Amino acid sequence: MSQSVPPPGNPFANGPGGPVPPGSGNPFAGGPGNPFAPAPPVRDALGLGLAAAAGTAIAAAAIYGGIAGAIESEINFAAIGVGFVIGLVAGKVGGRNPILGVVSAVLALAAVYLGQIFGIAIIAAEEFGVPVTEMLFDNFSLLTDVWNASKDVMTFLFLALAAFAAFSGAKKA
Description:
The protein is mainly alpha-helical. It is built from six helices and two strands. It has helices at 46-71, 76-94, 98-128, 132-138, 140-150, 153-172, and strands at residues 14-15, 18-19. The radius of gyration is 29 Å and the shape is elongated. The termini are far apart. The mean pLDDT is 85.
């Protein structure tokens, strides 16, 4: 009666051609390999992050103003979303650079202001029967006068909240 006895050593260190020599990259055979996946590379594309934030700010201002003009009312809480989206895109594309948070906050202020101006332009263009582009380009001073007359404490509160949301979005990305 003979019984087979397994060979001594680590049975998992053997490859199809026999034992795997130490130093071959197999961490279980005493080699210098790493059984874990490598860390993802650090994103640091400041220029791309700034460009993405600027593009997002333009698009968000157009959407924010378009919605405000379509319903003929300002949605203050949407300003927070505008800011957060700008910061989030900047952080996702540009990485963890601290400049992106500050620039995102400034772009959020500009986007919310321009979105409000665009909303006023849509409402005024409909009221006077002229194209929106004519209101924006030929009567911009009139639009800013209307914005100045309609601003209140809540306007500045939501501008500040949009900037804070943009800064936070860039940090969390």
